[in-house]
């Protein structure tokens, strides 16, 4: 009897929790102005709603899972996902087989398209919240690339006060997005500007310029040859000289850092190791240059032997930093693991950061930037 | 017989023209990277395509008209619109009753939502083309408004060279969007930065700063009272002091202009007439403050009699400029017409510009900015 009562009590308690979670749905912070849906609840469930009176089937497609919505008598389809991880997620709706953005959200470039995004509030959201602190600016910088023979664009964060004291020079962090993303990612879903604003206001990071370029760069196509990435050349020969001309930078290697996420981590590691005269600090967020190979790294051949002399690496690199979410796919666990093993074997100093309960997603990278930026330019 | 031949010839000739137009569809410049559709042809027709295998009915909704698409055996729906005016248009798709953005385009804020936009190349597109000239920057400026008790944002264009010579001070144009648009409109679909870059490079306009704020501003809601717009207070008491602090401005009235489109034209006319100590030039693009009333204007009462003394207005305003598309809806023709009649009657000097073959749309406003900016700050 007591046992039965307990079960009833537990069921009742569970029902109450569910009820609270059901009733505490709030419009997402990524919604378009005035839009009620999508909503997120305290469990991290995402609830969407769309008028589609003639549709046969409408689904919410998020986190690799499709959830069927149900239609009411007015033709409005509504439904919710399972709980999602904290942080930012790309998603879409599927209406009778058409994959389309949810007209309720703002749009973000990721997964190779401009599409819907949603924010599940995180415990540590204060790190990247818009607060009453001095704010830097994010500027669009257009430039013509002679290498790619095309107009390109980067975004440049200048710290609070940059425009006021026009004599101060600043160190620069070059910060790259991942695959199927672009130069808008870090300042939009990455919230890089707010992270820096908050760190600088708290005296946790030194004021710095952050340059966010597009990691896809190819020479004009020649015949049927597969286009070869020339991002390294564009960054070294075009972007850095442009930034050092257009902005008040400290232009020596000690005051220049480079970091990236996923594909960007891979790219920027190659770039710093090829150009140690240009950069003194590296950050790899959810990625390393041995990707996708998780075998033991042979330092004699890996990146042309650039990690073979561990002491030389230690001498030249001030901050060597790696970050990874605890819920990342196996391939990242294994490849970053193999890379760390190599660093240990070579006696190379590095910092490793684990982002709790996050996958290969933007909360991992926001946290990584938050941690990494605090270590820069402090020697 | 000759007559019949002529008809055949005409039909044949027409068919050829149609055939050329059909075959010269090109991906729109507003497409997402790598997307083939939507396309635009030389007639200005818009052709869209979307995979929606289970849908019953799919439509293209552009220019207030819905066009049915047709489905092929693969489930891909395709169809085209009638010829559209040159310039930029908002549009959407309708899938079984759901109004959604076209996943092929980039997204723009207008018509009260972030949604699809398409560019029909105009004869005078060089005015706002991205060219090999020095480019200014567009920066995001966050600020907390004590009046609205909310974070707000404006975008600020600084001309080429702003960061290089850090002693030069610049005049400022405050430039406002229309109803159901926001602070992103002028630098995105308006191409204000490219228009200024091109004018400055051609020595047609003096280098100036352009500030693009959000015209919607309300005090925190109090009870059930209808919120009262406080944009004028925000602009005068918060935005202008912020800009004069953050940027190297010439901060006297002679070096400050204000302009807006549609609702923004209405708002900014009120603002300059209430603050002639702050601004010396006005531009009204497709709008005037008598809107929606097209009756003869009584200058004794209109805007508290601010136009009653025509000589005083002439003395204080350097440039009084009005622009209108030749295909604008009747209400704008009539209200702007009534306003011009009042100016004539009062002997107030003004410039009137007609944008050929454009309606209440962005090409009218791009052209207006192109003309208006050339007249500013030249006394």
Please describe what this structure looks like.
2 copies of one chain form a homodimer. Chain A is an alpha+beta fold and 379 residues long. Chain A has 2 domains: 26-121, Sandwich (Immunoglobulin-like); 126-373, Alpha/Beta hydrolase fold, catalytic domain (Rossmann fold, 3-Layer(aba) Sandwich), CATH 3.40.50. Helix content of chain A is 25%, strand content 26%. Chain A is built from 7 helices and 19 strands. Chain A has helices at residues 2-23, 192-201, 231-246, 263-274, 310-316, 330-346, 362-373; strands at 26-27, 39-40, 46-51, 58-62, 65-68, 70-71, 76-80, 87-95, 98-100, 107-110, 113-120, 137-145, 150-158, 172-176, 209-212, 256-261, 281-285, 319-325, 351-355. In chain A, the strands form 3 sheets. Chain A has an 8-stranded mixed sheet, with helices on both faces. In chain A, strands 4, 5, 8, 9, 10 and 11 form a 6-stranded antiparallel sheet that branches. In chain A, a hairpin with a 4-residue loop joins strand 6 and strand 7 (76-80). In chain A, helix 2 (192-201) runs parallel beside helix 7 (362-373). The interface between A and B is large, with 50 and 50 residues. Strand 12 of chain A pairs antiparallel with strand 12 (137-145) of chain B.
Helix and strand arrangement:
Two copies of one chain form a homodimer.
Chain A: H1 2-23, E1 26-27, E2 39-40, E3 46-51, E4 58-62, E5 65-68, E6 70-71, E7 76-80, E8 87-95, E9 98-100, E10 107-110, E11 113-120, E12 137-145, E13 150-158, E14 172-176, H2 192-201, E15 209-212, H3 231-246, E16 256-261, H4 263-274, E17 281-285, H5 310-316, E18 319-325, H6 330-346, E19 351-355, H7 362-373
Helix pairs in contact in A: 2-7
């Amino acid at each position: 009897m007591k046992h039965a009562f307990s079960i009833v009590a537990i069921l009742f308690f569970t029902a109450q929790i569910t009820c609270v979670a059901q009733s505490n749905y709030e419009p997402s912070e990524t919604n378009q102005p005035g839009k009620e849906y999508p909503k997120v609840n305290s469990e991290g469930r995402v609830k969407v709603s769309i008028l589609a009176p003639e549709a046969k089937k409408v689904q919410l497609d998020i986190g690799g899972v499709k959830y069927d919505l149900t239609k009411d008598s007015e033709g409005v389809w509504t439904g919710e996902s399972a709980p999602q991880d904290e942080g930012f997620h790309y998603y879409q709706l599927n209406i009778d087989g058409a994959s389309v953005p949810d007209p309720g959200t703002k749009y973000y470039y990721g997964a190779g398209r401009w599409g819907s995004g949603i924010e599940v509030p995180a415990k540590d959201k204060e790190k990247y919240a818009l607060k009453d602190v001095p704010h830097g600016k994010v500027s669009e910088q257009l430039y013509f690339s002679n290498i790619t023979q095309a107009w390109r664009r980067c975004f440049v964060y200048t710290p609070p006060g940059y425009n006021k004291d026009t004599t101060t020079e600043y160190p620069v962090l070059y910060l790259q997005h991942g695959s199927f993303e672009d130069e808008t990612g870090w300042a939009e879903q990455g919230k890089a500007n707010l992270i820096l604003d908050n760190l600088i206001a708290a005296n946790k990071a030194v004021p710095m310029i952050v340059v966010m370029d597009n990691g896809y760069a190819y020479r004009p196509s020649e015949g049927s040859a597969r286009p070869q990435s020339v991002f390294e050349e564009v960054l070294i020969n075009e972007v850095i000289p442009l930034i050092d001309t257009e902005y008040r930078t400290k232009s020596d290697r000690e005051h220049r850092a480079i970091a990236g996420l996923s594909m960007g981590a891979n790219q920027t590691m190659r770039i710093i190791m090829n150009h140690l005269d240009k950069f003194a600090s590296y950050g790899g967020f959810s990625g390393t240059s041995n990707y996708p190979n998780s075998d033991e790294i042979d330092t004699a051949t890996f990146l042309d032997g650039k990690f073979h002399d561990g002491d030389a690496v230690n001498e030249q690199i001030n901050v060597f930093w790696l970050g990874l979410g605890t819920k990342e796919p196996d391939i990242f666990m294994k490849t970053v693991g193999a890379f760390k093993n190599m660093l240990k074997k070579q006696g190379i100093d590095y910092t490793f950061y684990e982002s709790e309960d996050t996958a290969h997603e933007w909360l991992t990278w926001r946290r990584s930037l938050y941690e990494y930026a605090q270590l820069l330019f402090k020697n």
